[in-house]
Amino acid sequence: MRKVILSKTAARKLSNLLDYLTSEFSETIAQSFVKKLDAKFDLIKRNPEAFPKSKFKREFQKCVVTKQTSVFYGFDEKHIYVYTIFDTRQDPKKL
Asked: Which CATH architecture has domain 3-89?
């Protein structure tokens, strides 16, 4: 099975998001998000082509984790490369 590799940008955005969820809501909400993200990563690892190509960056696949958060990734035979974790409320040009 493929290994998930987070870019520095994706790791930073994930850390910031978890800090935000914990401080503004609760540790439980942050843990719930992590479970959803892990479940999506499992789906991506099994079938990376299951999710559509991004409309904004055609070289990326897009996986919606929650209505506010999407993961943009690419893949090869051995790896899933997570390029960014994106807040969908932002301007897509920032992607």
From this structure: 2-Layer Sandwich (3.30)
